Amino acid sequence: MPKSEQASIILTWAKDIPKFVKDVFGIDPSAQQKAYLIELCEMVWAKIKVYKWNATGKLIDGFPVTEREQILNRKFGTSVMSGVGTGKGASASWVIIWFLTCFPFAKIAVTSPSAKQLQITLWAELAKWHQRSKLKDWFTWQTDKFYFNEALGQQWFAVTRTANTRNSAEEQAETLAGLHEDYLLIIGDEASGIPDPVFRPLESTLTRMCNLCLLFFNPTRAKGFAYDTHNRDRENWMAYRWNAEESEIVTKDSVERLEKKYGRESNTFRIRVLGLPPLSGENTVIPWEWIIDAVDREMEVVSDDPTIYSLDVGAGGDESCLLHRTGPLVAPLQVAGYSESNALIEWASREILANDPAPKALLLDSIGVGWGIEGGLRKRLEAAKIDVYGINVANTAFNAHRFYRLRDELWWRTRTSFEKGFLSIPDDPLLHGDLNAPRYEEVTGKIKIETKKEMKRRGVDSPNRADSLIQTEMWGPDLIRKMFNKSVKQTKGKKSKTSWKTA
């Protein structure tokens, strides 16, 4: 293709992102994506036009700068607050490839709450669209850089930059420092989890001709920089909310499943479907903010923190959930839908025995079908010297003056662990929803947690994943001894704040 013809095509793409997506990837964006991409393109060209008008006083494309272009030019960028599955990652990937294709010596910095999260979300999505692109040979994808080949990776690239949450605010503010170019994008993926100080230098960074910031996020927090772009700082951003119910690329079944499990009024439905931030219910046992703050929290296990397993036995078609925890660290849950007891025992024992090192114990609910499962697992795990403890959460609480039943006490102990920052949990939206689902009330001075029957009456399913976690709060020398009259060796040595607590 002659260079003049190629240049003409690129100029056409530069002014029409949906056409670029269609021509290069062979796909039509959804209505939400298309509306966003059209306005983003309008903003890019408004910034270019205003900058050149101010610099030269000459008309661009034969037209003076309009009032709307002046408004768009003053914006820091765009902010997409969205439900799950609406195509945030695809949109960001298309923009990265479009911007590097159409604008000379462009630079893009991509940041996220953590390097690990970035690699499995947007950067992996970018790799997928690079492979599908008709311009695949123009670019090279690497684990931390995506660049235009003709520039040999210099001065024309997208690069990952993430902040260490353990660093000081000043150190976090350096994440995006030193970025300067006429064509510059800063992209925040899952921006609600990015530390606020990272965004502090935006005003001093976005100073040249076509510089802007693009935020994409699931609104898991009702505070912070990303949240403010849709609220008190909205005038500085083009803000969009993508409701998954209105997206043609989100299946109705997936929406209905979340509605059935948690209810339309739940935070899980608000965040993952409606694209709205969580509400803080006064009588929610574990506030949403505490749960999100605990996701992938960086914590260290001390030498005397044992590994234990917990099994919540599903009944009536519910899934069974197997969880293992070492000190404050909760590993990703394993779930199975076995309806036959022997199959469940075989699966659970196989998974537990495969753990290295061997766990100290297994805790499981012994109510109903759990009673038979408890006996079967005790036989399977006896040779490996793994203790099995059956827990009946309907029993009287240890602190009977404060709680009605053991279940109430275990939920409240779990709440305290979240409140004090004693837990690190996996990025499991179903676990998060379960933890946030129950409500509580205080009756005659005692805490009473909403029962599963009461939850069912308001359209919320049993919080099985959360149940597998709250059972681990039984692990403590005093509780085990009280419940089973069994001597448990007291841990020796100095405790750190990350070691397991006693009641």
CATH architecture of the largest domain: 3-Layer(aba) Sandwich
**For the terminal residues, how far apart are their CA atoms?**
74 Å
Strand fraction: 15-25%
Give the uncertain stretches in residue-range form.
Answer: 484-503
Q: Look at the structure and name the CATH superfamily of the largest domain.
A: P-loop containing nucleotide triphosphate hydrolases
Main beta sheet: strand number and arrangement? 8 strands, mixed
Number of domains: 2
Question: Care to describe what's here?
Answer:
The protein is α/β, with parallel strands linked by helices and 503 residues long. It folds into two domains: 244 residues, Rossmann fold; 197 residues, Nucleotidyltransferase, domain 5 (2-Layer Sandwich), CATH 3.30.420.240. It contains 20 helices and 16 strands. The strands form three sheets. It has an eight-stranded mixed beta sheet with strand order 3-4-5-2-6-7-1-8. Strands 9, 10, 11, 12, 13 and 14 form a six-stranded mixed beta sheet that branches. α1 crosses α5, α5 crosses α7 and α17 packs across α19. It is elongated. The termini are far apart. The C terminus is likely disordered.
